[in-house]
Amino acid sequence: MWEAIGLVSYLLINFYFTRIQANKAAMLAFTMNRAGDMLMSIGFFAIFALFGSLNYSQVFSLVPYMNDTAITIIALLLLGGALAKSANIPLHSWLPGSMEAFNGVKQLYFIFIYILFYYHYSNNSIDINYLSILPIIHSIPTSTLHAITGNMLGDGSISLSKYNKGQGKFAMTMDVYSLNYLQHLSQNIYSQFTDTKFYPYPNILLPHHKDKKITQYHFKTKTHPLYTALHSIWYKKDDETNKFIKIVPLNISEMFSEISLAYWIMDDGYFDSYGRAQTVILCTESFTEEECLILQSLLEKLSIKSTLKIRSKINNRYRIRISKTSMDRVILLVKPYIHKDFLYKLGI
């Protein structure tokens, strides 16, 4: 995509190829764009040499521990690439000349770029809205992001505050036996971003709940931009009810790993020991059949086989059943991340 913009700029600026001025402007634009490409490429090579990765979360998490001079040089290289490509000062010299040749076909240029942009991202199943919040999501540790993904596939939910500029906040409710697990989430996952709170239900401190037995705990966080960003990819507005419903993001493969599977099993999985089954079933009734197929493809990437189990023919709802032959593989992958209180969900 980056390279295509430079090539398309050259071709369109030189559209009237019989004009000397158009020829010169096109050559200057191509040269300056190539200079920007070179700076950007050197910047990427420098990042990989310094960090050993181009992954957002890994790079951002290691930046505070790296040499300031090296970080500054990398930033300048990336900035230089962007300045040349977007014709900003001081790498703007190709822009004035290109306007004379470019004026007659500028509408075609923008249409062509839009088609390239749409084709690239639609073919890669990336929501354009996701691109704008990508830095926020990938600024957190990868393991944390994958754990949150598991929670969102399970009992986790994100709502938008009515009183705090529509900022998102995370919450989940589980039975009383899950208190240790919720405390684990608070201490190891969500307290990195905001304070967290637990609310028992029934609340025995309230007069009308006195002498009642606690059956559930509600866990929630304060609002944070991360949850707002995650809300935009995990929910869509239902036009009929005017409410948000949870969906499986098309780009979920970027946020899913064996860590996600472990938290997903702890939240919404159970061990089916009936008869010869002896396997894990994931409760996915809140997702459509198409979304369940996407989730099955994620399991397949982890070399885990599964089938869809019809939960409701009327509502077209399904559960994902891990194939018995893949249970050893599942246990090997997720056991290091399963809280001790939930090992029984693996049949251990």
**SSE run:** HHHHHHHHEEHEEHEEHEEHEEH
Major beta sheet summary: 4 strands, antiparallel
When the domains are counted, the total is 3
Distance between the termini: 49 Å
Q: Which structural class do the helices and strands define?
A: alpha+beta
Low-confidence stretches: 103-107, 117-128
Mean pLDDT: 81
Nearest-angstrom radius of gyration? 26 Å
Please give the share of residues in helix. Answer: 40-55%
Strand arrangement in the largest pleated sheet = 1-2-4-3
Q: DSSP helix count? A: 13
What is the number of strand segments?
10
Shape label: elongated
The portion of residues forming beta strands comes to 15-25%
Give an account of the 3D structure:
It is a single chain. With 348 residues, the protein is of the alpha+beta class. The chain has three domains: 2-124, no CATH class; 137-242; 257-346, Endonuclease I-creI. Helix content is 49%, strand content 15%. The protein is built from 13 helices and ten strands. The chain has helices spanning 2-13, 20-51, 56-62, 68-86, 94-102, 106-123, 128-137, 142-153, 179-188, 225-234, 258-268, 289-301, 327-334; strands at residues 157-160, 168-175, 196-201, 216-221, 235-238, 243-246, 269-272, 279-282, 306-312, 317-322. A four-stranded antiparallel beta sheet has the order 1-2-4-3, covered by helices on one side. The chain has a four-stranded antiparallel beta sheet with strand order 7-8-10-9. The chain has a two-stranded antiparallel ribbon with strand order 5-6. Helix 2 runs antiparallel to helix 4 and helix 2 crosses helix 5 (94-102). It is elongated. The model is unreliable at 103-107 and 117-128 (pLDDT under 50).
